[in-house]
């Protein structure tokens, strides 16, 4: 009897031991499964994020490449079409003209004038073909909203735009110059600043129209802008500065007092735009 009780006790001990061991193995197995599963999920999440970032980068690069191709096309059109016309004018107005008789001089000047007129018309046609349809038909505010929507479409940055008081449009040439300045500034931010957001605003008072770009990336101060603008590699900034001079405007670069974002302000005098 005592032997049977001892045997039963041993059997119970074995059952408890193996049961406990089995439960431990099961628990370890579950833990290992969960860990590997989580690692697998994290791996695929990282892979998906990298794919999305690469897609966004390619979309942004495609946009910038498209703009660069348009600029190269413009340069080619000017070189191929306007270049020969101006070279012909130079032939008509060469230094030997002063030695020609009066009738020949008048004819050469007349021919040169005709070619200059043709060149002016050619440049106008090229210029008009470069005006974004949204800008031409609906104005600066709609063109900037359209630009912001295209930027948001890349998924690279959160962009927004709000015009507070732009009821009266500028002349089309002024709107185009203003748009090109803002577009170039935005392109520089997209290329170099590593910003997560970009916000464009418009305000005005009795004397000035203010267009501002806010972003939280790497930016410039006023002194850095002026220094880079005057370097041989600062062609883009020089182009911006040239357009602003035509508009009689000013451009200011500054960092917010909280040191959380940069602000670029384009100041345009209203009386010079009328």
Task: Describe this structure as you would to a colleague.
With 274 residues, the chain is of the alpha+beta class. The chain is built from eight helices and five strands. The chain has helices at 2-92, 102-130, 133-138, 140-154, 172-192, 222-229, 235-246, 270-273; strands spanning 158-163, 197-204, 208-215, 250-255, 262-269. Strands 1-2-3-5-4 form a five-stranded mixed beta sheet.
Largest sheet: 5 strands, mixed
CATH architecture of the domain at 132-274: 2-Layer Sandwich
CATH topology of the domain at 132-274: Heat Shock Protein 90
Number of strands: 5
Uncertain stretches of 5 or more adjacent residues: none
- Average pLDDT figure: 80
Shape: elongated
Which percent band covers the strand fraction?
Answer: 5-15%
């Amino acid at each position: 009897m005592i032997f049977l009780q001892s045997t039963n006790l041993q059997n119970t001990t074995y059952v408890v031991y193996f049961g406990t061991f089995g439960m431990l193995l099961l628990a370890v197995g579950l833990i290992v499964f969960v860990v590997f599963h989580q690692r697998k999920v994290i791996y695929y999440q990282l892979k998906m994020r990298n794919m999305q970032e690469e897609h966004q980068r390619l979309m942004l690069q495609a946009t910038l490449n498209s703009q660069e191709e348009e600029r190269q096309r413009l340069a080619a059109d000017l070189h191929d079409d306007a270049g020969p016309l101006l070279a012909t004018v130079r032939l008509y107005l060469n230094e030997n003209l002063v030695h020609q008789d009066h009738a020949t001089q008048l004819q050469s000047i007349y021919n040169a004038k005709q070619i200059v007129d043709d060149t002016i018309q050619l440049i106008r046609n090229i210029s008009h073909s470069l005006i974004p349809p949204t800008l031409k038909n609906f104005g600066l505010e709609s063109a900037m909203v359209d630009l912001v929507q295209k930027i948001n479409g890349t998924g690279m940055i959160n962009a927004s735009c709000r015009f507070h008081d732009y009821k009266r449009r500028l002349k089309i040439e002024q709107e185009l110059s203003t748009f090109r300045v803002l577009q170039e500034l935005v392109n520089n931010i997209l290329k170099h600043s590593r910003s997560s957001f970009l916000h464009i605003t418009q305000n005005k008072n009795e004397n000035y129209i203010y267009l501002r770009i806010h972003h939280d990336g790497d930016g410039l101060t006023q002194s850095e802008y002026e220094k880079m603008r005057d370097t041989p590699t600062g062609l883009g900034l020089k182009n911006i500065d040239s357009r602003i001079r035509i508009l009689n405007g000013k451009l200011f670069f500054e960092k917010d007092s909280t040191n959380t974002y940069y602000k670029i302000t384009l100041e345009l005098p209203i009386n010079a735009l009328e």
